[in-house]
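Please review this one:
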Amino acid sequence: MNRKNENIGATGEYGRVVKYLGLLGGAQGVSLFISLLRNKIASNLLSTVGFGLVGLYNRTIQMFSDFTNLSLSYSAVRKLSDTYENATSVELARYVKVTRSIALLTGMVGMLLFMLFSPMVMRFISEGQEFSNLYLVCLSPVLLFMAVSGGEVAILRGVRRLNALAVYSLWTSLVALLVVVPMYYFFGVTGIMPSILFIAFLQMAGVLYHTVKLYAYKVAPFSLQLLREGVDMLKLGAGYIYTTILTSVSVWAIYSAISGIGGEAELSLFSAGYLLMSMFPSVLFAALDSEYYPRLAGSFGNVSVRNVMVNEQIEVHSLIQTPLILAIVAVLPLLIPLLYSSEFDGAVLMTQMAMFGLLFHVLTYPISFMPLSKGDVLVFILQETFANVANVSLVIMGYSYFGLKGVGVAFMTARFLDFVMAFSISYFRYGFRLSHCSVKYALWNLVFAMLMAMAVFFVSGILSWICAAVVILMSVGFSAYNLARHGDIFNKILKRLKLKK
């Protein structure tokens, strides 16, 4: 069956965008909460050394995975989505087999490299703890489980099984929590290795439960003919590997610079704020990775449809996320001590300033998917290189002259420059144009952001909280009014609540 006319995408579907923003963002938010709870429990059940080992093992596993799995959960989505939209069921089943074969092959390669080189890496980063080497070798199957899971997640994204993705997101967090607590409680540090293995296996089993009902599990990882069909996936995966390495190096450079200039105390404050800066976008933009990117890839050849689709995402995310971002900025003075302790109050101002940069990211992120959707690997690499180099340069410069406050301003400035770069590429290379509504919403949200900045930075005491609350209510009112103009959203909600006949 040809799917060319099914779910082609952008026809003013605000309701669809809102639905999946709530579904996938909500699932990601719950998963994040469960992860924080798991870390809190683990830190209490394990010694400081044991908790450090968990992080060390996981970082080592993730590093090998990033180098070997070609980021299949993203790199395979473009072709899968295009095949789903424009090809027959037979061709789609064939490419599902290609995806699974490459996933299995990269998993086996990753597992082998992990067995060979992880002890060497571990001696370098953990001062040669004798029991570490055996643990890491035993953990090598985790690389295989993760690679297979990544391929299956790509299949769910490509064929738009978004409810299954939301369920899987919750499943991964719940499995980790339910496995970790008894393992650490009964076995302590010796339970770390089996818990990591068991979690990875159950997470793989969870996603396979959904995908094998759609397509029988068939693979041919050593078939050259089959692997040649995945050349585009391999090219895009290589671009992902480059950007992953670049991002890791950029974060390392920032951490090293702050540690060298300001010492361990300043580094701790930065780390606390940086975690929140990284955590919130993963929730706010979860729907774009799983719902929007596959649809954009499947419809990229139609310029008018593509432009409407991108603008829809910008408009809806601007209206929904701006009040959330402003609310986060307002409550950070309470949130940071709650999550950490009062000793981390010094990270509040930096984090607040950096969070304002997310208002630019709301505009940038939907646009930044264009090179990926087109398969322009070199453009994607250029875009990511500029973003990382600008980020590192500005943060180090800002910290050198103005301390942590300068870091916050630097992150905000970097987000703005990232938007300028992404928009310029999309404008000249792909013919993208911002809609009137996108520009209008962006300008109004900039006004709300300036008012919030005045409330939190220039007013103190109870008056500051009152002013911040007023700004948030203004932003909520503006967003609700403009969303209400697309009445189908609220009509559907009212029907669901049985408040409308």
Observations:
- The CA atoms of residues 42 and 181 lie 7 Å apart.
